[in-house]
Amino acid sequence: MVSWTASIDTLRMTASGQYEAEINGRGTYFHVIAGRHKYGSFLYIPNHDIGCELADFSDIRRTVGRLSMHPIRKVDAVTVAAGISHLEKAGAVSG
């Protein structure tokens, strides 16, 4: 198993359940905007021009799959997916 460290800084959370955060891992920076809408969840990474629907913030495997449809390295997709899963577990975003 390969592991690495990453950092997460929560920038802003809204009453509607959306949040904005910075995730840094393995030398790559991600400005993440994520939240809920009427039909599910979304993830937007504007500095990488990536946006997608999500089933659940805690579903790392599925989130990696959704992100892998975009031009992003798998290691970076795992970093982002694990980061947003951690934010949900920490209560930063409601599940």
Task: Describe the SSE topology.
Elements: E1 6-13, E2 19-25, E3 28-37, E4 40-45, E5 50-54, H1 60-67, H2 74-89
Antiparallel strand pairs: 1-2, 2-3, 3-4, 4-5
Alpha plus pi helix count: 2
Count the strands? 5
Determine the mean pLDDT: 90
Per DSSP, what share of the residues sits in E-state strands of 2 or more residues?
A: 35-45%
Number of domains: 1
Question: Poorly predicted ranges (pLDDT <50, ≥5 residues)?
Answer: none
Strand pairing plus helix content: what structural class? alpha+beta
Radius of gyration of CA atoms, rounded to a whole number: 12 Å
Tertiary shape: globular
Main pleated-sheet profile: 5 strands, antiparallel
Order of helices and strands: EEEEEHH
Walk across the major sheet and give the strand order. 1-2-3-4-5
Q: Portion of residues in helices?
A: 25-40%
Distance between the amino and carboxyl termini: 28 Å
What this model shows, in words?
The protein has one domain. The model has no long low-confidence stretch (mean pLDDT 90). 25% of the residues are buried. The protein starts with 5 loop residues before the first strand and ends in a 6-residue tail after the last helix. A hairpin with a 5-residue loop joins strand 1 (6-13) and strand 2. It contains 2 helices and 5 strands, in the order E-E-E-E-E-H-H. It has helices at 60-67, 74-89; strands spanning 6-13, 19-25, 28-37, 40-45, 50-54. InterPro entries: DUF6618 (IPR046726). It holds the Pfam family DUF6618.
